[in-house]
């Protein structure tokens, strides 16, 4: 499976960990007992004073190097700032920065203290107060203070990329109560996620940025307080990080057994075929394989046969999210839902899965695949309570079985489905004239699919031919990654490929994916341009859910409405990770349930490496 998704690491971090547990305390005078961690629904797994996460080896050896590939499809970088919209940031920058708290990857939505030793959430959920560890330091030895936390929030809210600033919009105020105490105050009703969002923001040095322009791209290594520092780099080729021997938090429970490699190196290549060949050549050590053709046929090589390169498939219990061809409804030709549904019917997944994917995948359809948040069957009574107030504006299909793309005959050009697609286009006013679909004004219906990854051409080609069979002038437009990112940020496309990965407890980030506000916000994740007051309302129901049962009801309701809107042509998913790596690493007996755990829990094994070198 190839996944096209160029996004900032900080956005991924924010979207994964947001959440809140009721009744954890609050600002004076209504303070409660501070806690070492905060979660959303239910108790924390790890008690105060825990020694380490269960999915690490606490005495894992330190040393060695792991080399990986850079971001999928990105052939270079021009910035070490992954918090702003400008530029193409390097891979791995998240390891430079600590946050107040960090996620436990064996729980759906819990975080535990890193820079913060504890947190108080107010009973009314409108503020959270953190007390800082006095030993927290930046890499230059300067202390991390509440002033740095104030600066970080205000800077990211003002100058951070749109998805960050949107998530922080309802953080009304941040104040340093003293040098080691910081309080965040919130406004409005959508505050459930905000304590964990602010808890997982990167902490920036106020002093450092008095002489640096935060809002500009730069290749000057930034000052952070995290476990790694940039050691060397060459844009278009590599970036190397060195583990900091003086890292202040190396022995904290949240870090014990983690960040074991002395060096992390990310290699950049122009395409997936070159990447794969360089894996066999030993240029780098580790690769997660996203291309089914490669996984099925590309590893019949000597290093794999003799065991020097290991291949593993690990389970993935995280939501698989939504991958597909997203349709830009900002363009008039795609505003009619019948046109969008016709585009879906023309894609023959069954043919692609058999002939291109070796049967490795399952057709997607939900925006919450591989999770209990996915809608199924008729709406439950609880879902109907959310949907009934909007019945007058919703299609009747929302109140039945949620839409799933029909199964084709696998021929590559299912005549029944193509006839149905043609009928939908006819009904939408696009008639066949001289074998072309034209509107009543005589305008040709055309579709350009924008991408940057050559691996998708074999998938898009047959789809383009099917679109032509029903009279649509379809084409593929391949551009370089930098141009692709610029055009997607500006919504300058007809259709493009994207994958959204939903977290286990979604919240305010859904606004960046599907809200009317985000549809107008350049650089947002709302590629389809979804602007629907019903969806806006249902996003509010998700973010205000007070129990997991309420959350599931709201996500299933919104899934129904999105699927009935035909904003995409769904692709496929698999609930596993296909990994290939040179056999010189150790790993814990337990994999973190909701993460690969590779970079932050594996370690270099000198004995295995010596055996490789002796062959």
**Which regions have little confidence, pLDDT < 50, spanning 5+ residues?**
1-31
Q: Please give the order of strands in the largest beta sheet.
A: 19-18-20-14-21
- State the distance separating the first and last CA atoms: 33 Å
Biggest sheet statistics: 5 strands, mixed
According to DSSP, the number of beta strands is 25
| Number of continuous helical runs | 19
Note the overall shape. globular
Helix content: 25-40%
Q: Rounded to an integer, what's the Rg over CA atoms? A: 25 Å
Overall pLDDT level: 91
CATH topology of the largest domain: Dipeptide-binding Protein, domain 3
How many structural domains? Answer: 2
The computed structural class is alpha+beta
Question: Could you list some keywords that capture this structure?
Answer:
615 residues; alpha+beta; D-Maltodextrin-Binding Protein, domain 2; Dipeptide-binding Protein, domain 3; 2 domains; five-stranded mixed sheet; four-stranded mixed sheet; globular; disordered N terminus
């Amino acid at each position: 499976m190839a996944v096209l998704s160029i996004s900032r690491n900080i956005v991924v971090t924010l979207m994964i960990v947001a959440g809140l547990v009721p009744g954890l305390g609050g600002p004076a005078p209504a303070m409660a007992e501070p806690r070492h961690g905060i979660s959303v629904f239910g108790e924390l797994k790890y008690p105060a004073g825990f020694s380490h996460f269960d999915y690490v080896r606490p005495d894992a050896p330190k040393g060695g190097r792991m080399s990986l590939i850079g971001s999928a499809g990105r052939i270079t970088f021009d910035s070490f700032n992954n918090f702003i919209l400008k530029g193409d940031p390097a891979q791995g920058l998240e390891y430079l920065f600590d946050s107040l708290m960090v996620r436990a990857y064996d729980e759906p939505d819990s975080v535990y203290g890193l820079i913060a030793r504890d947190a108080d959430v107010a009973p009314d959920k409108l503020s959270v107060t953190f007390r800082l560890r006095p030993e927290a330091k930046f890499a230059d030895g300067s202390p991390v203070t509440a002033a740095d936390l104030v600066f970080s929030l205000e800077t990211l809210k003002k100058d951070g990329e749109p998805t960050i600033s949107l998530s922080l919009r309802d953080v009304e105020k941040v104040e340093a109560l003293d040098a080691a105490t910081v309080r965040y105050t919130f406004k409005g009703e959508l505050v459930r996620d905000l304590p964990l969002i602010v808890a997982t923001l990167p902490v920036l040095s106020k002093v450092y940025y008095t002489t640096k322009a935060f809002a500009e791209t730069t290749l000057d290594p930034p000052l952070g307080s995290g476990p790694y520092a940039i050691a060397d780099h060459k844009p278009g080729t590599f970036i190397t990080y060195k583990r900091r021997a003086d890292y202040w938090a190396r022995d904290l429970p949240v870090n014990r057994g983690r960040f074991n490699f002395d060096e992390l190196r990310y290699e950049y290549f122009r395409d997936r075929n070159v990447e794969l060949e360089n894996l066999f050549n030993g240029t780098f050590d580790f690769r997660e394989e996203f291309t089914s053709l490669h996984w099925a046929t590309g590893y019949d090589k000597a290093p794999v046969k003799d065991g020097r390169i290991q291949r593993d498939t690990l389970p993935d219990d995280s939501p698989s999210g939504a991958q597909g061809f997203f349709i830009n409804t900002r363009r008039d030709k795609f505003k009619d839902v019948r046109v969008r549904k016709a585009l879906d019917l023309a894609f023959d997944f069954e043919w692609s899965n058999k002939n291109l994917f070796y049967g490795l995948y399952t057709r997607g359809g939900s925006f919450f695949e591989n999770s209990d948040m996915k809608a199924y069957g008729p709406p439950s009574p609880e879902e109907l309570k959310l949907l009934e107030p909007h019945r007058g504006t919703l299609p009747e299909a929302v109140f039945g079985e949620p839409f799933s793309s029909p199964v084709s005959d696998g021929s590559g050009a299912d005549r029944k489905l193509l006839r149905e697609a043609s009928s939908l286009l006819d009904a939408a006013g696009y008639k066949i004239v001289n074998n072309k679909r034209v509107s009543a004004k005589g305008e040709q219906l055309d579709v350009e699919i924008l991408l940057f990854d050559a691996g998708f051409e074999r998938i898009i080609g047959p789809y383009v031919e099917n679109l032509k069979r029903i009279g649509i002038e379809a084409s593929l437009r391949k551009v370089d990654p930098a141009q692709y990112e610029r055009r997607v940020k500006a919504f300058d496309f007809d259709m493009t490929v994207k994958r959204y990965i939903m977290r286990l407890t979604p919240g305010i980030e859904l606004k960046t994916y599907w809200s009317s506000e985000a549809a107008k916000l350049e650089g947002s994740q709302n590629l389809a341009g979804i602007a629907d007051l019903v969806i806006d309302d249902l996003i509010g129901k998700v973010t205000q859910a007070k129990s997991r049962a309420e959350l599931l009801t709201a996500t299933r309701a919104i899934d129904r409405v999105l699927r009935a809107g035909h904003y995409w042509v769904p692709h496929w998913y698999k609930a596993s990770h296909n990994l290939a790596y040179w056999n010189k690493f150790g790993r814990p007996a337990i994999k973190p349930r909701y993460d690969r755990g590779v970079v932050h829990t594996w370690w270099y094994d000198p004995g295995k490496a010596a055996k490789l070198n002796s062959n």
